[in-house]
């Protein structure tokens, strides 16, 4: 299934992901990550990384964001945006790629924003080829 979002949706998605960097709890790395996911019903849900004094316990922005969307009852998504302060834009870590894959299709777009607001976009298939997912357990 091909996913397309409108220019207006992308503007809102990026603005919210970039704005969500301000909500990051990252006293250890000081590396702010904001994220926003657009549901097929047209809702924008944001999140950010939440670190912990026991470092491995911290959670990435992507998983905080998607977790919030899931517990709010959403299951279908159109696009995800992730924003950092670095250049070039950072891409989701391996654990997050698998986490995102659970709820998305191969053509699902992930937009990555650098600190200046420039973006690159990749599909889930590009980020995590030959992946394992829910269908393999049926
Ligand atoms: N981080 C994310 O939130 N998303 C990623 O995809 C990569 C890394 C966070 C985790 C940690 O709080 C900080 O960035 C530095 O690794």
Automatic annotation (TrEMBL):
<dbReference type="InterPro" id="IPR002125">
    <property type="entry name" value="CMP_dCMP_dom"/>
</dbReference>
<dbReference type="InterPro" id="IPR016193">
    <property type="entry name" value="Cytidine_deaminase-like"/>
</dbReference>
<keyword id="KW-0862">Zinc</keyword>
<dbReference type="GO" id="GO:0008270">
    <property type="term" value="F:zinc ion binding"/>
</dbReference>
<dbReference type="InterPro" id="IPR006262">
    <property type="entry name" value="Cyt_deam_tetra"/>
</dbReference>
<dbReference type="InterPro" id="IPR016192">
    <property type="entry name" value="APOBEC/CMP_deaminase_Zn-bd"/>
</dbReference>
<dbReference type="GO" id="GO:0055086">
    <property type="term" value="P:nucleobase-containing small molecule metabolic process"/>
</dbReference>
<dbReference type="GO" id="GO:0072527">
    <property type="term" value="P:pyrimidine-containing compound metabolic process"/>
</dbReference>
<protein>
    <recommendedName>
        <fullName>Cytidine deaminase</fullName>
        <ecNumber>3.5.4.5</ecNumber>
    </recommendedName>
</protein>
<keyword id="KW-0378">Hydrolase</keyword>
<dbReference type="Pfam" id="PF00383">
    <property type="entry name" value="dCMP_cyt_deam_1"/>
</dbReference>
<dbReference type="InterPro" id="IPR050202">
    <property type="entry name" value="Cyt/Deoxycyt_deaminase"/>
</dbReference>
<feature type="binding site">
    <location>
        <position position="60"/>
    </location>
    <ligand>
        <name>Zn(2+)</name>
    </ligand>
</feature>
<feature type="binding site">
    <location>
        <position position="96"/>
    </location>
    <ligand>
        <name>Zn(2+)</name>
    </ligand>
</feature>
<feature type="domain" description="CMP/dCMP-type deaminase">
    <location>
        <begin position="8"/>
        <end position="135"/>
    </location>
</feature>
<dbReference type="GO" id="GO:0005829">
    <property type="term" value="C:cytosol"/>
</dbReference>
<dbReference type="GO" id="GO:0042802">
    <property type="term" value="F:identical protein binding"/>
</dbReference>
<feature type="binding site">
    <location>
        <begin position="49"/>
        <end position="55"/>
    </location>
    <ligand>
        <name>substrate</name>
    </ligand>
</feature>
<keyword id="KW-0479">Metal-binding</keyword>
<comment type="similarity">
    <text>Belongs to the cytidine and deoxycytidylate deaminase family.</text>
</comment>
<feature type="binding site">
    <location>
        <position position="93"/>
    </location>
    <ligand>
        <name>Zn(2+)</name>
    </ligand>
</feature>
<dbReference type="GO" id="GO:0004126">
    <property type="term" value="F:cytidine deaminase activity"/>
</dbReference>
<comment type="function">
    <text>This enzyme scavenges exogenous and endogenous cytidine and 2'-deoxycytidine for UMP synthesis.</text>
</comment>
<feature type="active site" description="Proton donor">
    <location>
        <position position="62"/>
    </location>
</feature>
């Amino acid at each position: 299934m091909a996913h397309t979002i409108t220019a207006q949706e992308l503007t809102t998605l990026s603005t919210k992901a970039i704005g969500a960097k301000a909500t990051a709890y990252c006293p250890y790395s000081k590396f702010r990550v904001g994220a926003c996911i657009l549901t097929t019903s047209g809702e924008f849900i944001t999140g950010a990384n939440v670190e912990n004094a026991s470092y491995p316990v911290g959670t990435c922005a992507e998983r905080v964001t998607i977790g919030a969307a899931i517990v709010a009852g959403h299951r279908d998504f159109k696009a995800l945006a992730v924003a950092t302060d670095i250049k070039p834009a950072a891409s989701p870590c391996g654990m997050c790629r698998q986490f995102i894959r659970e709820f998305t299709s191969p053509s699902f777009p992930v937009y990555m924003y650098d600190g200046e607001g420039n973006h690159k976009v990749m599909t889930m298939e590009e980020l995590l080829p030959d992946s394992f997912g829910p269908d393999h357990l049926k």
